[in-house]
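Sequence only, no structure available. Ideas?
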Amino acid sequence: MFRRAPGQSVLPGKPVAEGEPAARCAEFFEAGDGRRWLDDRFARVASDLERMLENIRHLSPGAKTVLVGYPRLVPENTAKCLTPAPGQTHLPLADIPQDAMPVLDRIQKRLDDVMRKAAAGGGADFVDLYARTGGNTACDGADRAIGGLLETSSSTLPWYAHPNEKGRDIQAGTAAERITEILGRVETGVGRPT
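Reply:
I predicted one. Tokens follow.
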């Protein structure tokens, strides 16, 4: 599931051992020590976002704040993740078993939900990249808009789970469309942030 450097703890409790059924990964993150660890991390993210949005309102009371979510990493059809992307030698999600991929997707969706809730509570608008990038995940081969977990790029820097040029354009276009909607709403004085 997740590899750790010798002697270094990345996750709480006893991690799921390699060779264990992927269902143990779901149990770890959705009911066990991993769930408590994630709950704590998500609470910190929510608190940090609330504080950030409050600071923006305080320092720039006239600002129209937009919080941009994350693009989707894992596709609905996880079988796509069993083949390296063109020009790559590693599988897009490395050694994460196929049965554990939905767990990773649910964790990412939960992060976006935390961000959406913080935006709503902080008077900001939210740009939902997760919904927009379902056909451009790390496992979508030539259509991918985000790099795999071990993917290298043609530049000197790797772009592990980061947008490629297509991803940059999709994300920028999606954010620009949303900002255009917000500015139009502000000019007409219609509605509140959604």
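The two ends are 37 Å apart (CA to CA).
Hope that gets you unstuck.
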